[in-house]
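TEACHING EXERCISE
Course module: macromolecular assemblies
Task: Read the component lines below, then compare them to the predicted structure of the full complex.
Student: A.B.
Group: 4
Components provided:
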Amino acid sequence: MFEYAPAPESRSVVDIAGSYGLFIDGEFDGGKDGNVFKTVNPATEEVLAEVTSAGSEDVDRAVAAARRAFGPWSSLPGAERAKYLFRIARIIQERSRELAVLESLDNGKPIRESRDVDLPLVAAHFFYYAGWADKLAYAGFGPDPRPLGVAAQVIPWNFPLLMLAWKVAPALATGNTVVLKPAETTPLSALFFADVCRQADLPPGVVNIVTGAGDTGAYLVQHPDVNKVAFTGSTEVGREIARTVAGTGKRLTLELGGKAANIVFDDAPIDQAVEGIVNGIFFNQGHVCCAGSRLLVQESIAEELLASLKRRMATLRVGDPLDKNTDIGAINSAAQLARISELSEIGAAEGAERWSPACSLPDRGFWFAPTIFTGVTQAHRIAREEIFGPVLSVLTFRTPEEAVAKANNTPYGLSAGIWSEKGSRILAVADRLRAGVVWANTFNKFDPASPFGGYKESGYGREGGRHGLEAYLA
Amino acid sequence: MPKSSKVLESGPSRLTVRKTYKLYIGGKFPRSESGRTYVVDGDNVALASRKDARDAVLAARAAQPKWAGTTAYNRGQVLYRVAEMLEARRGEFTALGVPGSEVHAAVDRLVWYAGWSDKIAQVTGGANPVAGPFFNISAPEPTGVVAVVAPASLLGLVSVVAPAIVTGNTVVVLAAGPQVAITLAEVLATSDVPGGVVNLLTGRYAETAPWLASHDDVNALDLTGVEHPELAAELERAAAGTLKRVIRPGAATDFTADPGLRPMTALLETKTVWHPKGY
Amino acid sequence: MTVTASAGLSDLRSFLHGLPGVDKVGVEARAAALATRSVKATSKATAIDLAIRMVDLTTLEGADTPGKVRALCAKARRPDPADPSCPPVAAICVYPAMVGVASAALAGSGVHLASVATAFPSGQAPLEVKLADTREAVAAGADEIDMVISRGAFLAGDYNRVFDEIAAVKDACGGAHLKVILETGELGTYDNIRRASWLAMLAGADFIKTSTGKVAVNATLPITLVMLEAVRDFRERHGRVIGVKPAGGIKTTKDAIKYLVLINETAGDDWLHPDRFRFGASSLLNDLLMQRTKLTTGHYAGPDYFTLD
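Instructor-supplied answer key:
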């Protein structure tokens, strides 16, 4: 084997402070009760920084700042708001190396992905929505669409800065102001984004960042002076938020979990299908709500396909997220690693056959080898529950009818994949899949112009594209 | 005189044959499985139970794929046929006390929605110019089975049912004003609307709505007809159990106004399909 | 399917058309992703020496003369006169008319001698001419023959003719190794590249080669990726290892390393050897030498310090 020498991306491009306050009304300040928490590099367990845990008074101050900023911001001409967003997009492009390294440090994702996927998409998202700010009357939501007010936004740890972009860009373009809470394990890129806002001279209070755990988020979404709640995360928490918001009249959009079927027919372009399967479940360590976590393969080619898949998995490089050749980085947290491990053990205990390629995992940090389970049926928990890790469940089917039935046999409905060289079959299957995003002969593709969001318990509302404006307009 | 008699021409020499107002489930007019009735304006009207609601959801679910699978052109034709039948039966509704102008407005609303069947996808969907060699298209699809707490008026009832079904959903409607609602059911039953697409339950929605709000096989909940904010909040909370789409009360109050697209888009899912482009 | 002769090839078409399709966007994305691998330090040094050992140092010009060919052979034997640790290249690749000169110049060096043949580059000549071309090159000392397939016949769907020609040339080669040039730039689709690869391998090719270097599109990473998948799958089915040779347009060390990464993560170890993988190139060698010198001296090299041949 041709071994690649370590090719680490330089850490020196990012300067992480020892501690961070909250970003409220254009200023960083400490929390009222002085509570802090630590954010660690999941690849090494090294503490990266101390971050303020926002209490209720802090959230009150942030919402009040957003409320004060709302009037002036929403009455700015759209063309002026657009220019702020264009500025932000440009600053992100210029700082993309720094932000990519930061994201990999705090999240554990490979630098190849933060550099080639996350950061380009973040900048593109701001560019896309910047252009909408002065064209809202043409968006199809009536001649005079109005912003809602203050948006409370709670985002997950799997794509910290990208999820921020998905939330903040459309909210600001439509004239809303925001209070955003990043995930507890990945707060840093949002705090760096606060600095980007300052560099862009964004008016104080338009974007406020409050860091903290679940309590902070819960207090934020309950806040009576919030007009809009947008959440991306687990279905369990989404359900709780929907209950909280019930009866308040707050507008709500939810982007929740998934258990996507990736369906491979016997006439698939096999080599690309194998890449699609790998990309579907091992991209970002499988920490992807739309991950193709259920492989449905036509029984007639199952053996051949699995052999190819295993051969391909043996070439996956697991390790240091900052190494430019790493394919699979660290699991984001000890808690998530525990959940992946638990569900995997259940899978084995329920009789599915577990396989991972030989790979040596680092001693420190949170790691999980890419894993597939074969012999899985719809009755297995690993075929039903979202694992949110690099674990693939493999099921077989005989006919397209059976494939569709199995694919839809889940309370989730976020995404799905189809692999076939037959056009009419692809279109018919795509029609019948109950999922908000269907990737045919590709997987895990994202674009600011392409609406994203789920059916059923995967949530409601769409992010991205013209559709993404609706969540922030009255 | 009970309402059922008002719709009939009375004469001195003949005893009128009154109508029995039953439920409308799966294209049939069954009594409540509970055997219960209640008196509304002199008529014994079926008082739907939670099991009737359950049966109605089964009927709606069974009818949904085929209804969604009919061509948009065909669904538009069916809605137009409903408008024709309603126009023809205008007298029945006026006899029940519905103002003639409201019947006309309801007919016109149906015609308006009939025309949307093959246009809404063009207005709300389309090609997305993604940065890569991909064909990418977004199109709306029905969310599935919609439970509706309908407002009391005929125009209100039509204004919540039509947008739901023209987009390919099927509905379970908890109707106020049983005589008007069931007369509309008769219009539907004679208008090529397949059985199960619209199911109408009469009775007390406060009793049945919670069962629909918490039903795992209901995809959306339209609370337009709920008068009490506390009940609406409770139903919305119950709907959160399976993350149903919820149309809150107050979204539409003036049914004579242009409804806009929201009554339809609120019950549509956007599906985005990607495919590579290459030889 | 085992095919040994053109008799009984009625199912050749159905076999070739039954191969899995290749999705263009997918294969290009995969090749582009592999191209982002970062090969540094010691692995770069290993890669450069391997790449030098894989070069088929080529001159295929109407203006080729004995003098030019002798100079090239000298370079093949000792690519970097200043550094005896630099390995020789794999082979010299010339027109049949130059084989005699090259054979003499390479004697005892261990450097292979490849000759293009079969009416290179178009292949538009009668079979007898192609076979004579081949026999003469072998007789003059070539131990490798780079033949071209009849793209016209392939595109017309006359797979049996293409098969028979390859089989006949293979026969004419005697002990010489046969490289079959698919001229992928003229095949139009990746599906055709996969089919042509299988066709050539079934007909007896020892190597499948992308291009003549004489058309607009020569070797590319995704084309080579498809061919590497083909040789990998062929070995799986038939147990025989077929080599791959991208040719044309590979000019820099960076390019060459991308190909090595492609082998490493697709076909695997067994192809990381000059017997199984070649670069058909000319200017590539000097860039490899410059990068090699940079690694040994620690400073950037200049073209005046390397021979022009």
